[in-house]
Amino acid sequence: MGLQSGRPVVLDVDTGVDDALALLLAVNSPDLDLRGVTCVAGNTGLEPVVQNTLRVLDVAGAPLDLPVAAGARRPLLDPPHIAEPAATQTAEHVHGADGLADLGLPESTRPLDRRPAVQLLRDLLLGSDTPVTLVPLAPMTNIALLLRTYPEVQEKIERIVLMGGAVNGGNVTAAAEFNVFADPEAAAVVFGADVPITMYGLDVFYSVRVSETEATAMAASDVPSARLAGQLLLFRMNGELGSAEIGDAGAVAAVIAPDGLTTEALPVRVELEGRYTRGCTVVDRRAESDKDWDPHRGFPAPVLDVALGVDAIRYAKLFVETVS
Ligand code: RIB
Ligand code: CA
Asked: Which residue among 17, 137, 142 has the greatest number of ligand 1 atoms within 8 angstroms of its CB, and so is best to mutate?
């Protein structure tokens, strides 16, 4: 990897349409120095995630020596009451049968790093001269295993900016967001890390949108990254709204331009039980004075910088301009 300017980052992905948008933004941003990418099962199985990730990096023209490693193919625990383990659920309704909008991108010949994801993450973090920003955009199994296997890497993590959770509501269930639902135990381990964490949840995830007009123009571009981004956005286009969310790419925008995100330091717990609530991120917005009678007050929750608002126009513009 040549000398790079910009903030050092590593992405953990389950590519997926919006993970692909995040990769396109990270590779093309002059403000970021993408050091590596790790893959985990989630939107689709691990092998398709790896193939999709390599294909997207080919389109983006990422350096061939950018390390990509495969990680966990299942969550830490397969929940007892889900007929099919969350991470092996198909994502056809969101990401297409191949997990990448069924665009039929050519197979990649890009080499996969021989190291497992946890090893690559460790080597990238401990080998970096300056602390690295970790950007998990998928079920957090790889990150939890990293923190439990090599806790010393925490000194070399500048911040974890993760897409996951929600202050209100869910998407995969009424209570839970997919990345946390797919591996709630892993999310709880990551939330408890001794590093600053930004939780980029559903409350902002769907707000950053690109219009159908703009996506159509991008899909006609002769710039490969813009063309692929346009095709992916058109695949996710919401006919009623006339726009599509950039999803995970918004978390990358939050690394590039953190002042575009409104956050508040709030206690967050991950619900691990509950037939209907497993994977819920319980964000405590109560005033301190209201907590005197809280039976849980003896069990302090991790405090995360929770995204409550986003400058959606600015992030959408940043995304479109950077990939174009
Ligand atoms: O809930 C949204 C998240 O689930 C995104 O990361 C999307 O790619 C899926 O993994
Ligand atoms: Ca994802």
From this structure: 137
pLDDT tens string, the chain, 324 residues long: the values are: 445 679 999 999 999 999 999 999 999 999 999 999 999 999 999 999 999 999 999 999 999 999 999 999 999 998 655 555 554 455 667 888 788 888 889 899 999 999 999 999 999 999 999 999 999 999 999 999 999 999 999 999 999 999 999 999 999 999 999 999 999 999 999 999 999 999 999 999 999 999 999 999 999 999 999 999 999 999 999 989 999 999 999 999 999 999 999 999 999 999 999 989 999 999 999 998 888 888 988 898 999 999 999 999 999 999 999 999
Is 12 touching ligand 1 by the criterion CB < 6 Å?
no
Q: How far apart are CA 204 and CA 167, in angstroms?
A: 10
User: For the CA atoms of the chain, what is the radius of gyration?
Assistant: 18
Residue minimizing CA distance to atom 1 of ligand 1: 178
Domains and CATH numbers, the chain: 7-323 (3.90.245.10)
Confirm or reject: Cβ of 171 under 6 Å from ligand 1.
yes
Cβ–Cβ under 8 Å, residues 130 and 102: no
Cβ(133) – ligand 1 distance below 6 Å: no
How far apart (Å, rounded) are the C-alpha atoms in residues 75 and 85? 8
Q: What is the pTM of this model?
A: 0.95
